[in-house]
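Notebook entry, structure prediction.
Reason for the run: the old model in the group folder had no record of what sequence produced it. Starting over properly, with the input documented here first.
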Amino acid sequence: MKSLLIISCSRRKGPLQQGSAWNLYDGHLFRVLKKLLRNSPGWRRVIDILVVSAKYGVIRSDECIRTYDCLMTKELIVNRPKFWAESLITNLSGEDYTQIFVNLSGRYLEALPNISKIIPQAKYSTGPIGKRCH
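New structure, fully documented this time:
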């Protein structure tokens, strides 16, 4: 059985122009997670990571994407209400997670449908990025 972590993308990207979301994003939370998981080569067998991306929707961390510069704005959320919901539901389809942890900032959480209705067992981390990384 696997656990699921749902996180937001990061504005900061590494030097790659294309690659897996995991390798492309280089923000604070990604750095903390990469450092934490560095010495656990089999972590992908027990943890799935979904990334809420302003450009790509909800994607798996191993999904190949191109670098971009797009912010999660209020306007973007209002103009594309089903975009993130549909990709979240697609990525959850057929999965049975033992634990689900949501670590999203305000706008990224706003972009998704009411997660507690879709995933009632989800636990949340709230507050500024430093607190959420802790």
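Summary: Residues 80 and 113 are 12 Å apart (CA to CA).
The old model has been moved to the deprecated folder.
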